[in-house]
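Retro notes, structure queue

What went well: the backlog is down to a handful. What didn't: a couple of records were mislabeled last round, so from now on we paste the full input next to the output in the thread. Example, using GntR family transcriptional regulator from Pigmentiphaga daeguensis:
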Amino acid sequence: MLDADIAPSMTVQIYERLRADLLDGLWPPGQKLPMHRLRQHYAIGASPLREALSRLVAEGLAVHNDQRGFAAASVSADELEDILRNRVALESLALEQGLARRSPQWEEALLLAFHRLSRTPRSVDEDSYEENPVWERQHRAFHFALLSACGSPTLMGFCEQLYDRAYRYRQLAARKAYKRRNELDEHRAIFEAVMAGNLEAAKELLARHYERTAALSGQQG
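Corresponding output:
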């Protein structure tokens, strides 16, 4: 009985750790994920690890081949274009539904989310890009605050999945564009358009924001 209680908890824990490490690039795109190496790295048994990997395969963050085992999912221009196209479509829909349902409470939450993001440094190193976990949390909170008034858990769930799929590409862009791109100004323009109720401008600015990231992610060097 005790083992049955512990196993699901261990699976969730290793899933969350491995998922975060895949998104952060600890296991680079395309790298093999040998079970023995993962078991040693995470100090975990084979059963919960395999269950966690299976969940990550279903999410598209890992792949599995019967002969070759598990590997971190590769990145590609085609996948990036697919993510971009669907993010723009779904988030535009969420914005449209949200602005039709806007409330003072939502506006206050969005204002707070933008304020927190604007006060947080993009990188922990001023001279070169080094991911700031606090900025990442505030960035995520801001983007979902933009969409949250839509009132659809299903739509928000799809948007969250695409946000996570785009994360690895955004990290590539951040390293290349640090100090050459003012993301705060881009976020401010989107925020102001949404607060003004200008749906078409907000949709265009959001799409352009993602397109810039996609273009930088696809650059070489």
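Agreed that this is the format going forward. Reviewer comment attached to the example: The longest strand covers residues 62-65.
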